[in-house]
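Predict structure. Input: Ribosomal large subunit pseudouridine synthase B, 187 residues.
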Amino acid sequence: MTQAQLDELKNGVEVDGIKYGSIDATLERDQGANVWVTFAIREGKNREVRNVMAHLGLEVNRLIRVSYGPFQLGEIPEGQVEEIKSRVLREQLGEKIATMSGAQFDKPVREDEGPKVGRDGTPLRSKADNKKIKRSKIEDRKGRTVVVQRSGSDEKRARNEAEANGYGPPRKPKRGYHGKRDLTPKD
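Output follows.
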């Protein structure tokens, strides 16, 4: 793989009847059988990077998105979202696109709403606040110490443990299919 081959992608390329627009590709480094390439695409068609690289004779093992449009992703963890400030968004879009969008960039960003308040003005507690988490240490089968977090009342836990040990009231039968019934007549 050479930079000259990648430079040909600036004019666009057609692969299997699909036309891809201009692609800025830069050869970063060549490590044995691996080639690191930086791709800047504008269309984002389905599997565009993989198809174009296959056209050049390379198989893509991993794709790492480093930016989305003019916005660098930096250290944002996978699956997380970060809000772009209005001023930065307006600067990146440019004055023409910002006015065409009709968005109010001067309007303050919506702040997170505070805690919900009851009729008497006191903050409401969530169900999670009602549960008390108790931490303790127990030993597993191999004698290792393990930290355990338990929630719920001691009374309920004792009742569940008693039922598990065979003590306590009998449980109601579970609903659902329990296998084929014996239909032979009883004498």
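The radius of gyration is 31 Å.
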